[in-house]
């Protein structure tokens, strides 16, 4: 009495497979891949650096197949490889639409000569990065990026209200810190007790500023119990040419 049951279940399994296989095949683009083409691309993006034309041109190379054959992961990867693109979200909407949301990288600072740091703290490289204006200049070993960013943030807080503005932070391969001010002045901090020595200078700076005619051109904080400063030499006054002999009068 129990013999026919396995055959019955086997028959049901075969029948369900015959029904499901075409559906799975269509959904995965195994066949009928040229049917139901994608006709619309809807974009959501802030076009500060990447253009809609660039995105569309990149996406269209993946739309030769039909709606179900389009692989969203491939589309996202291709668009994400464009300069300035941080990440991409893609989804399909029946019957013929591909929707993309593109997030651009937001530059925070220069890193070295030709690279940038985005607001997520990641280094990236794009054409023309070195010409961008209005960004602080940070540099150091790549593996110490987070440390340089943190020290820059600390400097911005500590210098607030001092009348001095930090334009660049540099960490050498040997671990020595250097600041460049907006005035062009250099502050050598060194490797030892960097934060303590910088704070010691800022504590004294208000009195020094009151007695000087502007920021120094060089500050060396690499002393155990003090620091050295140098101001630009005053320009020599321009002397007016001495008048020559008076012309002789006519008789």
TrEMBL record:
One Pfam family here: FtsQ_DivIB_C
Subcellular location: Cell inner membrane; Membrane
GO terms for cellular component: cell division site; plasma membrane
Keyword presence, Cell cycle: yes
Membrane topology: Single-pass type II membrane protein
Keyword Cell cycle: yes
Main location: membrane
Keyword terms: Cell cycle, Cell division, Cell inner membrane, Cell membrane, Membrane, Transmembrane, Transmembrane helix
Physiological role: Essential cell division protein. May link together the upstream cell division proteins, which are predominantly cytoplasmic, with the downstream cell division proteins, which are predominantly periplasmic. May control correct divisome assembly.
Family: Belongs to the FtsQ/DivIB family. FtsQ subfamily.
Protein name per UniProt: Cell division protein FtsQ
Organism: Dokdonella immobilis
The gene coding this protein: ftsQ
């Amino acid at each position: 009495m129990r013999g026919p049951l396995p055959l019955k279940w086997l028959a049901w399994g075969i029948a369900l497979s015959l029904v499901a296989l075409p559906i799975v095949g269509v959904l995965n683009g195994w066949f009928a891949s040229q049917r139901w083409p994608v006709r619309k691309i809807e974009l959501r993006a802030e076009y500060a650096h990447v253009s809609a034309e660039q995105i569309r041109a990149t996406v269209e190379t993946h739309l030769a197949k039909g709606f179900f054959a389009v692989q969203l992961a491939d589309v996202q990867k291709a668009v994400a490889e464009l300069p300035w693109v941080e990440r991409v979200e893609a989804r399909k909407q029946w019957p013929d639409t591909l929707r993309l949301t593109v997030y651009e990288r937001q530059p925070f600072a220069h890193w070295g000569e030709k690279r940038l740091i985005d607001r997520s703290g990641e280094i990236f490289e794009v054409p023309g990065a070195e010409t961008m204006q209005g960004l602080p200049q940070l540099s150091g070993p790549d593996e110490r990026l987070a440390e340089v960013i943190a020290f820059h943030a600390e400097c911005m807080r500590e210098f607030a209200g001092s009348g001095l503005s930090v334009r660049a932070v540099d960490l050498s391969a040997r671990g020595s810190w250097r600041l460049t001010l907006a005035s062009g002045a250099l502050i050598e901090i060194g490797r030892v007790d960097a934060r303590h020595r910088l704070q010691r200078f800022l504590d004294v700076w208000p009195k020094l500023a009151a007695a000087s005619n502007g920021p120094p051109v060089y500050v060396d904080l690499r002393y155990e119990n003090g620091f050295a400063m140098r101001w630009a030499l005053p320009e020599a006054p321009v002397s007016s040419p001495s008048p020559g002999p008076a012309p002789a009068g006519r008789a």
